[in-house]
Amino acid sequence: MVIICWSSDRPNIGIGVKKIKYALNSFADLTFLIPTGFKMGDPPLPKFLVFFDDIPDSINAACVLCCCLPCELKEKIWWFNANMSTQYKETELEKLISGKTWGLCTMTLFSMGMDVPDILLVIQW
Fold it and tell me: Model confidence over 99-122: pLDDT tens digits?
């Protein structure tokens, strides 16, 4: 058992740890983000960010998550990294803020200077 003590003056922030069940490179442990049977017309997913240590993992994870969505909703989850153009990054940020995008698989870059007030879930992979 591991006990983590982390003080926070933000009562709306919770810290959790989830044991990995599947191979890391399968990203199957992230599929909890999309409920089984999710379909068009269901309420939108809560906005989320998943942080990765390398770009290929963030891209592969986004692809795995997109496969869990109906075809019409696959554009709701994207990757976001330093290799993207400034225009792409600005557009994706706007889409996340507006709710057109529900989740990003990203790198530390995203946490620097971004202000998205309604992110409900942040995961460090």
Answer: 999 999 998 877 776 778 888 899
Contacts of 75 (CB under 8 A, 6+ apart): 101
Q: Which residue's structure tokens are 């379909």?
A: 39
pTM: 0.86
Tens of pLDDT, residues 42-72: 999 999 999 999 999 999 999 999 999 999 9
- Identify residue 76 by its one-letter amino acid code: K
String of DSSP letters for the chain: --------S-TT---------S-GGG-GGGGGGS-TT--TTSPPPPPEEEE-SSHHHHHHHHHHHHHTS-GGGGGGEEEE-TTS-HHHHHHHHHHHHHTS--EEEE-GGGGSS---TT--EEEE-
